[in-house]
Amino acid sequence: MRTVDFSPLFRSAIGFDRIFDLAEAAQRVGEESYPPYNIERLDENRFQISVALAGFRPDEVDLTVEQNVLTLEGRKGDKEGRTFLHHGISTRSFKRQFTLADHVEVRGARSEDGLLVIDLQREIPEAKKPRRITIGGSSQGNLTQIESEAA
Description:
- The chain is mostly beta strands.
- It has 2 domains: 1-31, no CATH class; 33-124, Immunoglobulin-like.
- The chain has 2 helices and 9 strands; from the N terminus they run H-H-E-E-E-E-E-E-E-E-E.
- It has helices at 7-10, 17-27, and strands at residues 37-41, 46-52, 61-66, 69-74, 94-99, 104-112, 115-122, 131-134, 142-145.
- The strands form 3 sheets. Strands 1-2-7-6 form a 4-stranded antiparallel beta sheet, with no helix packed on it. The chain has a 3-stranded antiparallel beta sheet with strand order 3-4-5, with no helix packed on it.
- The chain starts with 6 loop residues before the first helix and ends in a 6-residue tail after the last strand.
- Keywords: Stress response.
- Pfam families: HSP20 (PF00011).
- Residues 28-138 form the SHSP domain.
- This is Molecular chaperone IbpA.
- Belongs to the small heat shock protein (HSP20) family.
């Protein structure tokens, strides 16, 4: 048995539960490696996931986002009537999930050169951006937006 149960630690680790999620995900490395993919940072707030989907048409792939989880599923149609002398291109069904950080949205997806390219954008809402709070002598505080880039 190679799994570690982190659930007792969740009670005493307020705010650090994401660390345990990452540790559990690290245990699963190597379990599923198909299809291969790259995650690239284009700039401070833009990212791109490229997934190698050789042999799959766009209508055989489903891409959904639900509660910060991007799910990519592929189902290849039947190969009836086809005889392969060598079958080296993997066309098995798959399901791959990516956990998106808070405020990261999928901007679009396109198929180019055998890759599915998924564009992601991080947009922090104004209410979540850092604000400067001026300290005054009265009971009323003034809030102003900090002039800087988003964290």
